[in-house]
Structures are given as C-alpha cells and as structure tokens.
Amino acid sequence: MNQYLIPANSKKSMLIFGLFNITDLFIFAIGAGITLLLLMIIGPSETLDTILILLPALIAGLLVYPVPNYHNVRTVIKSVWEFFTNRQVFIWKGWCAKDAYSEEQSKK
Questions:
Q1: pLDDT for 7-41, tens place per residue?
Q2: CA 35 to CA 6: how far, in whole Å?
Q3: What is the pTM of this model?
Q4: CA distance 64 to 75
Q5: What HEC string does the chain produce?
Q6: Are 88 and 67 in contact (CB under 8 A)?
Q7: By the 8 A CB rule, do 56 and 34 touch?
C-alpha cells in the first residue's frame, strides 16, 4: 500500500524547526532585541508604555507567524503585493495531459 502519486512536501525539512528560515529568525531576533533594549532603557511604568515597548517584538512575531498553506505572513504579504502590482493573469501549469498554454503559443 502507501503508493503516493505526489511525494510529501520536502521543503519543510529545509526550514529550522520545520517552520522558520534564517531571515525569519533574524527578523524576530531584531524585533525582540529592540524590545529588550527599550525595556532596559525606558522601564515602563504604565500599561500604555508597556504595550508600545512590546510592539517591535509583536510585529516581528506576527510577520514570521506560520500560516497554513504558506510559509508565513511575510509570504502572504509578498504574494498579495505581487498579484496587485505585477501582471494580473497567473498561468497554471499542472500535470495535465495537454498543455493548453503551449498549444495557444504555437498557433501564434
């Protein structure tokens, strides 16, 4: 049994902890570092101060947060940006028996 047509996703094994790449860890480390520096320098005394100081780590954490079917939120933002700024038609190239796109191109 266990005969699969499509192999398992092997890209996840290339990620750190199966979730993050080096860029993600740098982004989160910089956000957490800025937050720690602000905590040591300012020493929050009110709730609003604490929230403002924690913002760099929270924003960095949200950017690298894993999203189902994508790598993380940065990938989602990049895909949305590319969709709305580049060409609006994405060509599907699947495992079909006939490749309609190449047939259309050969007729021209």
A1: 455 566 667 777 778 888 899 999 999 999 999 99
A2: 44
A3: 0.60
A4: 9
A5: CCCCCCCCCCHHHHCECCCECHHHHHHHHHHHHHHHHHHHHHCCCCHHHHHHHHHHHHHHHHHCCCCCCCCCHHHHHHHHHHHHHCCCCCCCCCCCCCCHHHHHHHHC
A6: no
A7: yes
d(CA 15, CA 22): 8
Give CA–CA dist 54/35, Å, rounded: 6
Residues 38-54: pLDDT tens digits? Answer: 999 988 889 998 999 99
The answer on pLDDT for 61 being more than 70 is yes
